[in-house]
Each structure stands twice: as structure tokens, then as C-alpha cells.
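Why does residue order matter? Because the sequence determines the fold. Keep that principle in mind as you read this record.
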Amino acid sequence: MKRIYLYVRIAATCAVMIACAVRSYAAGDEMWTIAYQGEVEGRPEHTATHAATLLSRYMGRVLGTEVKTAPWEKAEGENLILIMDASRAPAEIARELAGMRGDAFLIRYPYRIDDKTVCLLVSHDSHGIDYPVYRFLRQFMGVDWVGPGEVGEVVPSDPGWRMPGEISVLENPDFEMRHWGDSMYQNARPLLAGSPRMGFHHALGHIFSPSKYAESDPDIYPLIEGKRHIPDWKDPGYVETANWQPCVGNPRTVEIATKHVLDQFANEASTVSVSLSVNDGDSNHCMCDLCRALDAKDAFKDPLNPNRSDRYFRFYNTVIERVLEVEPNAYIAVLGYGPTGVLPLETKIHDRICVFISTGANPRQYAPAGGSSALYHYHLDNAYPTIRHYPHMFARYLRESKSAGGMGYYAQIEHNWAAGGPKTYVLAHLLWDVNSEVDALLDRYMRLAFGEQAAAPMRTYFDRWEEIWQREADELPNPYDTIYRWNGDHIRKFRYMRWDDVAAFDAALEAAEQAKMTEQEKTRFDYFATYYQWIRCSIVQYLMAEDIRNPEWVATKSPAEVLDTIGECQALTARFDKIWEESISKDRTGWLLNQKHGLIQAVEKGERFWDSLCVEPIRAEIEAHVGKGTGLALQEISGNVAGGKVRAVVFWEEELEKRPELRPFIKPEVDRLQGIEHLNLVSNGDFEKGTPGTLEPGNPPHLPGWWFYDRVGQVLGSRATYDWSDKVGRNGGYAIGCGPGQYPGLRTFVQAEPGRYRFSFWYRTINRKDSVDVSVFQLSEEVSVEELASAESVRAIENDYYLKFLRRSWAPTGGEWKQVSQTFTLEKSCGLSIPLEPFYMEEDAWVWFDDVEIIKLY
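Structure:
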């Protein structure tokens, strides 16, 4: 067998050069290899030895022969590849890369160096030293990557491969930062992404950590109601970069921030920007005179939504001006989020302040203040019951950002490749070359992943998903928002699905399955098909529920046909659970389940909810939707039974004998017909018991069983207006009114056993423009309802202890009382929280609540 050798030289400063004989060679050529010399410093993925290993591995697989590495000084052979960064390259080569982005690279063949002819692969710096290797493998050897692991590698067999006669490639990416987080990082580098050169995320809590400065500099912490609030960093629930902001008007704060930025640049040569981003959560800001002096004069014109943007951008401007005296190429990058999520009213943003906008906001948002926007996007496939495919939107968004001066892109990607593979492939290529042709990239992905014959039906499959995405996007206030209501109102996510979509998906996957595929292509296809069959269960249940709750549909069917459909619908829950247990939850490849560490830990404990893994909340919404539809259908059937309620009860008792699996639905219908009432588990749900407060902000009434946000919320000093009045309830009794203020709201807790329940409440709105959030949250096992006897105990419940079970927003009523009713099923005993949260209430706006009930139906 012919042997090919790859050679490496490790210089005294740890710069590395690699050579490999690859072109034409004759049988019997005497080749030899020498071992490495010396140690390599730094992160392994940023070393030339790492790049050499990659090149040798994939070249060896293409050529069907072993490719060895050895120090450059021992390199022999007629044909060589040499890998280095610009600091070790010939001066004329280094000049070609000068002034380009950090990940720029050059590939040149033939090139003479050290009296040898080589194919030269040169990166701008060591941080991107593997990028020219990946480009060489893809462009000249046909190697590509369509997903994680060996299953995602496309490596052709080509023993007769030869180097092209001439290569001249000079690449400069359109975006300086091209990165997504979580478990996808290792799958990003082969696609020339995974480049986290720009710090920008929440940072002030780390920079001004109370563990460092609480004793020495207490005045850098926020002044709230006349007292410095120093976060308790020893509290087990403390999150370093959340729920407070430092006193940015303090000169000492500027001093600490400036030193932090300069230290970051000194310690990491590849850094393009250092973050000074505000902490997560727009709350607990400093109100001292120095900070108020940084605010615009009209900052608090709207007390519900004050504009604190000038305060923080003035702080950023001061810091960057000091930094530039030492580091003239420096950038500071910050999140356009929370208090900095709006345009400053008076302040021009320094041109070295890069703002990362989030949730798909307008890329030109900060242009009126002189700022350019980088992009912080979210792709949370785990939070959705459908496949969200929007590659053409990517192109529009990235092109608009680049034209507006954007230079960075970061995505919080928590997807699996069976849902997001094609769009991620397109995204990576657009980030390098924003003018890449989207359709050509999609076609290439389909051919690479599934083979020539299955490519067309799989493209049809994903095109249909993009059509569904566009139906939703056309209704969004922001066309680039990929996570609209990602953690709530889950039933909304099904509203863009139709029966003809399901038929189209089924046909496309059937056609692809019948196509000729290699074993590896079939393995990939099976992942995609399995994932579709899993989400198909929920989609079909939603569509069935839409049918059975429609009186016109029920009228066209016999009772037996309706009940058969309900039975089929219910059976899909078991199928959904079976696929989850046997395939989705067991996946550790990243094809079916995102491999984020915390998510996998939760799944291994048997949980189906963790952060953006919203399986349990989505299923709760689906089952509530199916349950309500089933109840309406049964009522419709009862009304059509000749002989009235008595005969209807007999009918249902007969059906129970034939359909015992429907007992949780039929038994409540029988109870309704017989006038049987059930106990309300919500204490004081009619609000008839209490002690009055006043209409002054911050003085709510005392209602036994209920806790007001003013007492238990995380925003210190929160004040809202409440009215507990008689004769205003829907039946002339008491009701609770939530009036003007940022965070008016109240919550209660109940303990519930396994079974099927109905949650209902009445509400009316006056002068309210936005929707009203009312939910049912399931508490984790760590929380006991019996122990929630004080405001301190309620406030101590960590946010992660709330399972967003039925999280919904309800439309304004225009002064009318309206009832909301949902059903849900609990598989085990647990505590439930019911938050009534009409936050950000306008002046003169009121939301009234009455008769909140949780009733066990079965």
C-alpha cells in the first residue's frame, strides 16, 4: 500500500509548521517520518498540531492510506502541504492577510519555501489555524459535515486524488464573530463557525462581584430606597449576573471596569471585544444622584417603561475612551437588552461600542444614535412542537446587519440536527459569505445528507416547514424573531399547522424512504423520520382536537364516530411517550436531542422540562386542548340524545362499558348532567375574605391565601396599586383589582393529587391595551406548599422550581367579564402556583379577577 507522510515542525515559540506529501508519487518512493520535538502550549484546538491531525485523518480516509505527521525540519517528499499562522509566514504572505478579520486565511499552491515546493495553508492567527484545513478538505477533497459525530461526516473515497495544478484562495469572513453556544460548538468549526472572538454577554455582575468588592467598595452597588443593596453572593440561589446593576455613576466603578477591559485584552490576543453588558433582568437599578445625572432628562417620562439607556451608554463611552488610550484597536461589546434595549434619548454611542441586539430585533435599531448592531439570536428547537426552518430569513437578516455595520453573530442554539441541521448548515455558510446562495446550500445539504435520490423529497419536506414558519412570521411584530413566546402559550405554536401539511410531510418522507441510500445516509434519514413521527403525534392531536370541538364537525358524525376519533386522539399520547422513552430521551448523538449538559442531566433523572426543553409544558397545553375539545364534544353529543339528561346519563353509562379508557372524560360529563359539584382547591378563590388596603401604591389588601408581588417579587421597592372592592365582582360580591404600576400581581398555591382537573377564572380589563398573563405553574418536588407560610418563604422559591405548566396570555376584554377554562392532568402529587400577572399596567388601567378555581374532575 502507498504511504503518505505529514510533517510538523514545532518552533521554540511553539509556532508549528506542517508538511505532507500528497500529489504525484511513484510506487517505491522512499519516504520516512520523524517524531514530534518539544511541547505545544495553549489550547489544543488552536495549535498547528491539531490542524495537522485533522488534515491527516480526513486525507487518509479519502485516499485510503495512512497519513503520518512529523516535524517540518525532517520533511521529505516531492509534494508538501505547509500549515502555519501569519506570524510565521513569509513577509509577502503575511502582508496579504494584514488588516483582515481574525479568521481570515490563505491557501496557495505551488509556493516555494525553504527550497521546497509546498501547498501553503496560512491562518491569520493561531485561533483560526484549523479554518484553512477545513476549507481545503471541503473545496478540494469533497469532505463535508452535515451533523454531529461520524454519522454527520461526508468523506468520499478517492484513492486517485491529486492536488490541483494551481490554487489561489484568500478568504476573509463577513462576520468577525460566528459562534453558537452549548453542545453545538464542536460541530461548528468544520463549517468555519465556532469563532467566539467577541465578548458581549451579561458581565457586570462578574466584574463587580460582591465576593470581590462588597467590603472594600460598598458604594459601587445600587442605592435603592436610600440603602446600598449588596447582593448576597453566599446565598445558594444567588446568580452572579442577574437581578441587579452596579452604580455606574461612581468614578470607582469606571476605574474597575477600565482595568477589567485592559486586562482582558492583555490576556487574550485573539479578543476583538470585551463585554460590559448589563446583568440579566431589568431590575434593581441604582437611584443615587450620580447615576440619575447620567440619565436623559426625560428618562422617566413613562414611569412604567423608563429609558435608562443613556445612563449605561454614557458609562460605556467613558470606559472605552480610557481604554483606547492604551489599546487603540479595542472594542467594547454590550447587549442591547433590558435597560439598554432601547435607543438612548440624548447620547451618541461611541463608534467602538458594539451593541448585540437580541430576539431578532431591528439591525438598524441603534443607527440614529450612531451605533451599529451585532446579532444575538436564539434557536430553541426544544421549546417548540414543530420544526422551525427559516434559512431564507437568515439571509435577509444577516445581509441587513452587515449593511448596517454589524460585525458579529452569536446564537443560543439548543436544537437537534434532525430539526435544525439544514438551517444551521446554511447559517454557517452565510456568516462566512453573506451573499451565499441559500437554495444552492440547501440542495447541497440534502444531497450530502441523504443522497441524490432522496435529496428532492427531503428538500420538499423542509420547504414545507419553511412555509409554515412564514405563516407565523407574517403575524409577528418582528419578522426576525425566532423565539416569540418560546416559554409560554405553547398551543399557539400549533395554530399554523393544517391537515394538508401533515399529508405533505407524510408523502415526502415516504418518497425519501423509498429512494436508494447508502447505509450512512439511511441512518441520517432514520433520525429525521423518527423525530418527525414524534412531533407528528402532538400535531395530529391538536388538529383532531380542533375537529372534535367544532359542533359542525360533530354534527356530521355519529356518536360512535366521534368517540372513535377521541379514542384515536387519546392513544397518540402513549405513542408520543413511547418514542420519547425509546428514542428521543436515549439519544446522545445530538441528532434527536440537544446535548446541553444540564438538559441531559434533567432527562437522565426522568424529567421532560429543563430551561428550553419544554416537552412537559407543551404536552400540558396539548392535553388541555384535547381535554377541552373532548368535553365540548361530549356535551354536544349529550344535547343530541333524545330523552334529555336522564337518557343521556344512561347513554354514557353504556359507553363506559365499551370505552373504559375514556372514563376520565365520560365520568365528568355524567357528573355535569347530574348536577354534581366539586370542591374548589383554591383557598379564597372568590376573594370574599380579606382586610382592605388603600389605593396608594404599595399598600395592597391582605387576602388570606394570596401573596402580592409587592411583597414577594424580585424587584426591590416594587409598588403597584390594588383595589379590593365589594359589589364589583361578576356576581356583585368582592373582586381584586390590579391597577397602575410596573409589577401589579398576586399568586396563590394549592396542593394537588394525581388526576384530571379544571382550572378556571373570570377577568375583566379597563383601559388595558396588552394581554393579561395568568398561568398554572407546577412546583418542583423540592417545594412544599405547606411550608409557604411567609413572604420570605415564597420569595425564596427559585425560578427553576416553577415548571411552566399552563403559561398563557389572555386578550383584553374591553370592560366585559370573561371566563377562561382549561383542563389538565397530573400524573403525580405536586404543588401548583397560580400567578395573576397583568404587569406594566398603564395609568388609569385596571384588571379585575374573580372566582379562581381548580376543581378535580376525576
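Confidence is low (pLDDT under 50) at residues 1-40.
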